[in-house]
Design goal:
3 domains; 16 strands
Length: 378
């Protein structure tokens, strides 16, 4: 009686450890899978290494879970009780709610101690769990085989959610015992209820699916770069020589700003954001371009030679006037001087004296005029 009580106490202490659920956080990205090696002890001694892998395929928007082992694997894909799955040690594949592929001539039996490995007290009612229990993920159709070198299940994920969980459950082992004709005989060994929940967090690539947008943004940036460089090369000196040139510059600048509006879109994709930043900087450069209006100096029509020749003519007429005794000749010389003075003044008034040479010629003319006034008009 005492031994039996000690055995019950030991079972109570051990069972929670054997069946306690384990939780593990896992982070997946398209380029970063997660792998873990599990050790499953066997009832008859020894252990089996099982590698569990999780991968995220962002293009397909799926998560796949894979299990590999040094021994062939057998699992259930839906929960099922022992008494429905087995009859007289034979695996009743025809009673499963799903189809499993394999040679119809093959036979599958549990090993003798399989039943004893199940937890008491209701072994026949023992529930075998599907090998994966996903939460928030939708299992996708896949072939289900009885004998597996490896197991794999693909699950579809939502476009918006990034947190999911997958619990790994019952794993059994299956070994070929003998072959008789076309039929192979297999023995099924109970493995373990892994009972580990993997809490998965997906790290999505913020630039995934943005290839077309990035290409379009680069084309727009390259176009605005070419337009900016062409526009700048036209006005590389920053000077226009006429109001019409100023107007044309303004029109071209305005047309480029209409052709290339500022891109105010924001994106979590750093590559796209960088291209859009370059694009907007070139638009700012177009806006910042400016020119200065510098009108060219007008060419003077004032003829220095004529001015100086007129001055010499006046001086010559005055000299002749001084030596002449003829009243009519003097009057004629005076009239000639008045006419020369009047025409020269008109010419100076219309054109002005801008250069130093022109100003010096005008000064010579004024001296001749003053000499005439002092001499001939006393």
């Amino acid at each position: 009686m005492v031994n039996r009580l000690l055995l019950c106490a030991l079972l109570i202490a051990v069972c929670p450890v054997l069946f306690a659920q384990t939780t593990k956080p896992v982070t997946l990205s398209d380029k970063t899978p997660f792998e873990e090696e599990l050790t499953i002890p066997l009832r008859k001694g020894g252990e089996v290494k099982v590698k569990a892998s999780f991968r995220f395929d962002e293009a397909a928007n799926t998560v796949s879970v894979t299990m590999q082992s040094e021994r062939k694997l057998f699992v259930f894909w839906e929960n099922i009780k022992y008494r429905k799955a087995f009859r007289n040690k034979r695996l009743c594949t025809e009673k499963l709610s799903y189809n499993m592929t394999g040679n119809t001539a093959d036979r599958f039996h549990r090993v003798a101690w399989f039943y004893k490995a199940l937890p008491k007290p209701h072994r026949k009612r023992h529930m075998f769990h599907a090998w994966t229990e996903p939460q928030g993920l939708r299992p996708m159709a896949a072939p289900r085989q009885i004998v597996n070198d490896s197991l794999s299940q693909t699950l579809a994920v939502s476009d918006t959610a990034d947190a999911y969980s997958i619990r790994l459950r019952d794993v059994l082992f299956i070994d070929e015992v003998k072959q008789k004709g076309a039929a192979r005989y297999y023995a099924i060994t109970y493995g373990s209820d892994i009972n580990t929940e993997y809490q998965i967090t997906l790290q999505r690539n913020p630039c995934f699916g943005f290839d077309a947008q990035i290409a379009a943004a680069r084309n727009a940036r390259d176009a605005v770069v070419r337009s900016f460089e062409a526009f700048k090369s036209i006005y590389d000196k920053g000077v226009v020589n006429s109001p019409e040139g100023q107007k044309l510059f303004n029109e071209l600048q305005e047309a480029l700003q209409i052709q290339f509006p500022v891109n105010e879109d924001s994106s979590a994709c750093a590559a796209l954001q960088e291209v859009q930043k370059d694009y907007n900087q070139y638009i700012d450069s177009i806006k910042a371009l400016s020119v200065t209006l510098e009108l060219p100096a007008e060419e003077s029509s004032l003829n220095v030679k004529i001015i100086l020749a007129n001055a010499r003519t006046i001086d010559g007429n005055v000299t002749r006037w001084l030596t002449s005794k003829d009243k009519f000749e003097r009057e004629d010389l005076e009239d000639q001087c008045y006419s020369i003075i009047s025409d020269t003044k008109d010419m100076i008034h219309q054109n002005g004296a801008r250069t130093q040479e022109e100003q010096d010629a005008v000064a010579v003319f004024k001296k001749a005029e003053q000499y005439f006034e002092r001499t001939c008009r006393k």
